[in-house]
Amino acid sequence: MARLHNADLDWRDGKTPESRQFGDIYFSPKDGLAETRHVFLDGIGAPDIWAGRDCYTIGETGFGTGLNFLATWAAWRKKAAPSSRLNFLSVEGFPLSGDALGKALSVWAEFSELTENLVNLYPEIHPGFHRLSFDDGRVTLTLLFGQVEEMLSRVEGQVDAWYLDGFAPSKNPDMWRPAVFQQLARLSKPGARLATFTAAGQVRRDLTEAGFAMQKAPGFSYKRECLRGAFEGEVHAYTGKPWFAPAPAQGIAGPVAVIGGGVAGLTVARRLRQAGADVTVYERDRLGAVGSGNRVGLIQPRLTAADSLDGRFNAAAYLHACRHYDQMEAAGKTSWVGPRGVLQLARDDEEAERFMRLVAEERLPGSVMQPVTGDAASDLAGIPLDRPGLWFPHGGGLKPRAVLEASAGDLSIFEQATIAGLEQSEGGWVLRDPGGNVLQETQAVILANGPFACDLWPIADLPLVAKRGQVVHLAASEASRKLKVGLSFGRYLSPAVEEAEGCFHVSGASFNLWEGMPEDEDWRQLRDEDEAEILQDVRGLSRSFADLPALPDNPGRAGLRASIIDHLPAVGAVHDGAYFDQAYGDLHHGRRQSGYGPARYLPGLYAMTGLGSRGFQTAPLLADMLVDQMLGTPLPVPRDVTEALHTGRFQIRRLRRPPKR
Ligand code: SAM
User: Fold this and answer.
1) Which helix (H) or strand (E) holds 183?
2) Could you tell me which of 378, 40, 19 has the C-alpha nearest to residue 195?
3) What is the CA(218)–ligand 1 centre distance, in A?
């Protein structure tokens, strides 16, 4: 993705921002809010158009100061039904800083609370998609930082109404090009409304050409006219690879069963409940006793050397997770362990060089990832370390069990029961217990049971395996207690935590293939060799850890993680493997992709698995992706990331290879 340029501003009368790049103003100096209400809210027929809608999605070109978003959010709070949700998607190529945003919006005292919420969550200026959520998930804002046409072309999901708010077409022609309008048409629901301040003839003609029926309306203040319209063109066919065409949005009107009560299941359950779903989470173990039940987990990004989808997904998931847990903490639901920050230490010179490349290539914004020398690392850590590394000030440790409980919220959604059978029925899906009794019949099922997802339903070609991971609890010493922040060095080490069994650090984890059956329990047995390897690595890190032993009474714990060989999770509707074989069986001939029909899915079956050892980091973003897919609302990640996480990706890879003779 191209580099971003920050907004270059002048402040007229000290309070109205003006763009130096474009020589134009962000909103009317006379009364920006009245202009927004007249042009945009009235322009799409809000709030009347919201009546009877559970969920409404507005797309905007030109986020600027966020005034349109704030005015819409405020109107939504006042006028929309309390259970309904607003999604706001906005593109911005020259973002304002959070401070500038706060200053521009401070003029409207009535928005002070909303402004504060927005400024607090406003993302680092970094290219790509940023999903923010407000009012306990009732309102989401997806900011697309980048050039308008490119960013819109990466969006998947449908929009109910558009605000076109670039600078004046004469000063900012890129925002008003037919190719941009084509993207609006691609993403529009039938009848989608559109409003803009301009009445330029060319804009009107090009919007008409793209399928919008446009009308003139009285303009605001000295402007004579503005434009309003509705999408009457043909609904666009999927333009990407047909085998990754999204599943039709099924909605969440009926009950949803989530199988698996680890971090994947409970995080998606939380998001579903925010969206108004009736959810039951089935888990055979007690809450917090499953794979995600370590005492401390570190949130720290996994970046790749090359600019890969894997690296981009992980960077986005990390930024999202930090925001997610900050918000949970602000709401008093869970808290970070000790001071914030994680240090990633280079294991050798080659890795130190790789770290410098990640910084130079700005895989994460400078304020989020900083190179540090061995001395600086020692200062940050509070103990002597002789390796350089990367400092992630927003990362930190979490208590997984507290996060799981907070995600479940109302614990009555959690049902301790083993699902042993899953069958497709006429109305949806039947869940059975090991005795064959029906536990639930439901329209929607989410397989969030880690490595066992494919035991319940064989997802065609998905190479899902179980990896056994053991952590060690190291009894803290006087010297080791000085460690202030989490360390990562191939393994990880937490600062000391005070628990009933004593004061200890958590370090892990081993990561070995485990090939048992779901009912086998032998993975729980601690292995001496795993413990010895971890102890050796920790002791070699710093003289402060030289003699740390494992806690005698509680030396560690083992868990199982679901892993897929490309190290990416699988999330979304589960594809129909039989149809894939039949429809795409000749892909190896290299025919043009336009010759194939769109993907098919098993209606109502979804997966969220393969989160590996990074479940706490990726689950919040994956949960948003999954719920957006169920609802048909715009996804929080670009289309290529969704494709990279598709359940059918391995089947397509197989079908592309010539068959063996
Ligand atoms: N809606 C905004 C508000 O409520 O403050 C005002 C938007 S301002 C009139 C136009 C915005 O379009 C600016 O923030 C500008 O940086 C952005 N913009 C201009 N050209 C762009 C492009 N090619 N891609 C993305 N954004 C662009």
Assistant:
1) helix 178-187
2) 40
3) 23
Mark 36-66 as b/e (b = at least 16 C-beta within 10 Å): bbbbbbbbbebbeebeeeebbbbbbbbbbbb
- The Cα-based distances of 417 to 284, 321, 414, 564, 605 in angstroms read 5, 29, 9, 26, 19
pLDDT band at 292 (very low <50, low <70, confident <90, very high): low
Please give the number of the atom of ligand 1 that sits closest to the Cα of 60.
1
The residue whose CB lies within 8 Å of the most ligand 1 atoms, and thus the one to mutate among 3, 25, 31, 61, is 61
Say how many C-beta atoms besides its own lie within 10 A of residue 11's C-beta. Answer: 12
Of the residues 44, 63, 125, which should be mutated to test ligand 1's pocket, given the most ligand atoms within 8 Å of the CB?
Answer: 63
Q: How far is CA 201 from CA 168, 185, 198, in A?
A: 13, 19, 9
Range with the poorest average pLDDT among 466-470, 518-522, 532-536, 545-549:
518-522
DSSP, collapsed to helix, strand or coil, labels residue 536 as helix
CA 65 to ligand 1 centroid distance, Å: 9
* Residue 291 in this model has a pLDDT that exceeds 70: no
Closest CA to 443 of 217, 630, 211, 599: 630
User: Using one digit for the tens of pLDDT, what is the confidence trace for 472-496?
Assistant: 999 999 999 999 999 999 999 999 9
Report the chain's C-alpha Rg in angstroms: 26
- Give the residues across from 215 on adjacent strands: 228
Indicate which atom in ligand 1 lies nearest the CA of residue 65. 5
Nearest alpha carbon, ligand 1 atom 1: 63
Chain segment 143-163, per-residue pLDDT in tens:
999 999 999 999 999 999 999
The CA-atom distances, in angstroms, between 213 and each of 152, 207, 233, 404 are: 21, 8, 8, 49
Assess contact for 393 and 343: CB atoms under 8 A: no
Nearest atom, ligand 1, residue 94 CA: 16
Atom index in ligand 1 nearest the CA of residue 149 equals 24
pLDDT at 13 over 60: yes
Peptide bond just before 509 cis, omega within 30 deg? yes
Atom of ligand 1 nearest to the CA of 67: 4
- Residue 2 pLDDT exceeds 70: no
Average pLDDT over residues 387-393: 96
pTM of the model: 0.96
User: Which protein residues are within 6 Å of ligand 1, measured from CB?
Assistant: 7, 26-27, 62-68, 91-94, 147-148, 165-167, 172, 174-175
**Segment 41-59 mean pLDDT:** 97
Query: Are the C-beta atoms of 432 and 423 separated by less than 8 Å?
Result: yes
Which pLDDT score, from 0 to 100, does residue 199 have?
Answer: 96
**Separation of 198 CA from ligand 1 center, angstroms?**
14
Three-state DSSP class for 558? strand
Query: Would you state the pLDDT for residue 99?
Result: 96
Residue 195's pLDDT is what? 98
| Per-residue pLDDT at 481 | 96
pLDDT for 401: 87
| Residue 581: pLDDT over 90 | yes
Report CA torsion sign: 217, 218, 220, 222.
Answer: positive
- Band (pLDDT 50/70/90 cuts) for residue 592 is confident
Cα 293 from chain centroid (whole Å)? 22
Secondary structure, 3-state, 256-312:
EEEECCCHHHHHHHHHHHHCCCCEEEEECCCCCCCCCCCCCEEECCCCCCCCCHHHH
Distance 164 CA to ligand 1 centre (A): 9
